[in-house]
Structures are given as structure tokens and as C-alpha cells.
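Look over this today:
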Amino acid sequence: MILGDILAESGGAVTDRAGETANDMPAVRATLDDLFRRALERRPDALALIDPPDRSSFTDGPVRRLTYAQADRAISALAARLRSFGLPTDSVVAIQLPNTVESVVALLAVARAGLIAAPMPLLWRHADAAAALGRVAARALIGCQRIGDAVHGDVAMHIAMETFTIRFLCGFGEGLPDGVVPVDDIFTIEGHPREIERYGEASDHVALVTFDITADGIVPVARSHGELIAGGLGVHIEARIEQDAVILGALAGGSFASLASTIVPWLLCGGTLVLHHPFAPAVFEAQRATEQCRVAVLPGPMVAPLAAGGLIGHHHGLQTVVAVWRAPERLAASPAWPTGETALVDVPVFGEIGLVAARRGASGRSSTIPTGRVTLPRGAAQGMYVLNVARNAGGLLALSGPMAPRAPFPPGAERGGAPKLKFTDGMVDTGYPCRIERESRELIIDGPPAGIISVGGYRFALRALQELIGGIEDGSTVAALPDLLAGHRLAGAGADRNAICDALLAHGANPLLVAAFRARRPAQRASAA
């Protein structure tokens, strides 16, 4: 599609959610549904979404291959179902689904219904989920019965019991608990949501709430349609994704980064999105070859091992690899990328606040982060400003601009005592310590936010983990140990590790924390040593 269709005049202004004018901020005048409908109108019979071929190994349901017309009918049917519940416009609907067709359909159905999507990380259980969804007064949750070995239907019931605002549970899969509305029939029925009544410009309405992890706790981060699309534009332009491209996406959709690096570029190019549930290398290779993918979106730390194993890189038909770095402090130490047919675009991500896309040059080394305004370098959006990057007075990375959140969420949160976004001089504090090189004026990330550790893309507040473990058994501890691939791994110690595991499971803790206390087999201990 033509990017110019969705961009406002460069001299226009954006009206923020408080009704104030944010000057000199070029606007994206489109919603997610607008982008999908443009692609639908242009290529109704083209393949839009393709499931992982190994889906039966981690969830229920058949492997689906949907055209734009078929996806449109499913989106409308689910949107109509959500509206039939009587949910007010701009209500929050949580989503926790694996990387399948249903996850994309659910996101777009929530948008079409005039609601706000709140995708959650897959490893969140009822402790984290209830704390997050209670903050945003979520009204409904869309999930499934099974993801891997976890019975998520039961998890959803626990979340609803602890989140008093949730009144409706919807689920895909077999054997759903009583009280969960099955929605697998959206792929076989017709449904049309009623007209949405909204004030003002639709693209300025909140489309998405994701959840940042800070040392103080979970912080909701809200974005309008325009802000989400602005984040994806940077990735789309730097990756030089062609119209109708086939994109292989290997990031689950529980964060701003995964949506901006995968869903938005797919909608902008109107191509085919091939979904991979991370991570099965042999399946990934088969999908890349069978579907003739031109772009692959991967976790940053996976790029070097996959290239070393011959699964990505030159002579594989890929035009571009997009590497998403959830721990951006690790990017500088990543190996050089060889020049050749396949380009590498790094996307360092700063929590849920913002991201920067940068294409590697002839040296193959990762680019540093520029200070000041980040603008798009080419195409119909050339010169469009998408982010402002600075080092604040506290020596921390701060962001503002069209992709950055502009206010705490929900409205009025700034007056409460719960953890919230921190603003200084109109810029959001990301918590990342940084410095600016004197000569180049480039910004260097020195480490993660204070008190935060990253484990395979999941962020944890270490003090909160230690307090939780200490409250279960006196003298028990948990520590973060370096890990080449995951950044860190959690290691627990206690007198009765089985009892600690049971207590963590009952609490609804993240499985990564539970695994830190499970007894390892001798071979595992030897390899860890």
C-alpha cells in the first residue's frame, strides 16, 4: 500500500488524549483496522495469515491458512461477539494466546470492535496477570485451553477470580472450563459488529495497553493507533519491506516491540504473515523454505546461533532479518554480520516505551543510537519524525515523540500511588543508564534499568523476586546468573525446593521462577557448572 495514504500533512499536529496539542508531531491518520481493510480491498484472495505447521505440539485447533477475505470474516465475527457482551467502547480486553492465527485475529477483532487490546506475555500466570489487568480495569479476556503443558483455561479462570472487573472469558480450544465462552466458531460463521460511536479522530484513541516491568512494579503503557503504527513504520522502512512481502514472525505478541516489528509491517506491506511459535529451529527452517519468506523477525540473541547453524543468512532467500533486542545493552557485543544478500536490521527495545530500528552497514557492526530526532530515511514517509532520544539530567535514556506514550494509563493514574510512567520535561524516563560520546554525539546504553534483570526476553524486578522467595521459606534465595543466550537465568536455593515450587505454583508465579527451584538432573548440573 502507499504509505502516503495514512500520513497526515507534515505540518499537522497531533491532539493528545487529554485534548492538548502536541506541536510539531506529524500524525499517522489510520487505525489498525484501516490498514487491514486497505490490504483486504487490494488482495482479498491473497494469503494473509499462515499458522505454524507444528501447532498441534503446543495448542489445540487445526493448522489454518487464511486469505484476507477469510481473516476479515473471522475478525468481524469475533468483533461482533465482543460487542454483543455490551462492552462500552474503549473497554480493555486482555489477550493471552500463542503465536497462531487466532492471536492476530483477536488483536484486530478487538480493534474493529472499538475496544483496547491488552496482550499479555505467555509465561504470565495469575499473579502477574491479575496485578496488571486490575490496574487497567480489564472487562474481558481472550485465551485458549492449552499452551504447551500449561492448562491456560484454568489460568484464565484464576485471573478472572482475582480481577473483579473481568466479566467475560472467551477461549479457543477443546475442553474449556465452564464459564468460558468458546469462540472457535468465528472461522465458520458470519458476524458484523454494530457501528462504533467515538469522539474525535479514531487514530488518536487508545489501541493497545502493554505492561512494563520496573523496580517499583508493573506499569501499564497505553498507545493510540497512530503511536503504534509510528513505531512499526521505523521497522518497515529500515527493513525495506516490499509490497506483498512474505514475513516470518517468530515473536509472540505480548509486547509493543513484537507488534511494532511484526504486525504493523505486515499490515503496511499487505503481504503474508507466516507465524512461528518460538522456538523450533527445524520448523523455522521448513517454514522459511516452504513459504519463500523474504523477511524474518527474530529475538536478537537468536540471530548469531541461527546464522552459525546455517538457518539464516546469505543464500537462504531472505532479503532482511529483523533482530529485536529486548535487552538493548547486549546489542553492542553482538557479532558482526557479514555483508551479502541478506541485510540485518537491529531493533533495540526500551521496555514498552519505544524502539529504534537501524540497518547494519558495510562494517557489519551494530549501529549506536543517535541522539535527538529519529526520522525515517526513505520512501513516502521520508523525513517523518518518529522518536526523540535524549539523556536526561539523571543520566538515563529518555524518549518522546510520535511512537512514545504521552500520559500514564488509565486516565487519572498520575494522581494515584501505584507505579506509573515517569515524565521529565515531556519525555518518558526509560530507566536505562546511558552516556553520550563526546565526538560522535551517539548514545551508549551502559546497562539495564536499576534492579531489573532480563531472562529470555522477560523482565523481572529482582528485589520483588527475592522478597517473594524469602516470604515462602526463611533463608531461601534467588539470584540472576549470566546466560549467553537468555541474558540471565534464575537460580534458586532453599532447604525444601519442592515446597518452594509448590508455593510458587499456588501463588501463580512465572514458570521461569518456578524452574529456578526445580531439582536439576546430574547432567544438567554438570553442564551448568
About this structure: The CA atoms of residues 89 and 114 lie 5 Å apart. The chain is about 25% helix and 25% strand. Residues 8-25, 521-529 have pLDDT under 50 and may be disordered. The longest strand covers residues 427-436.
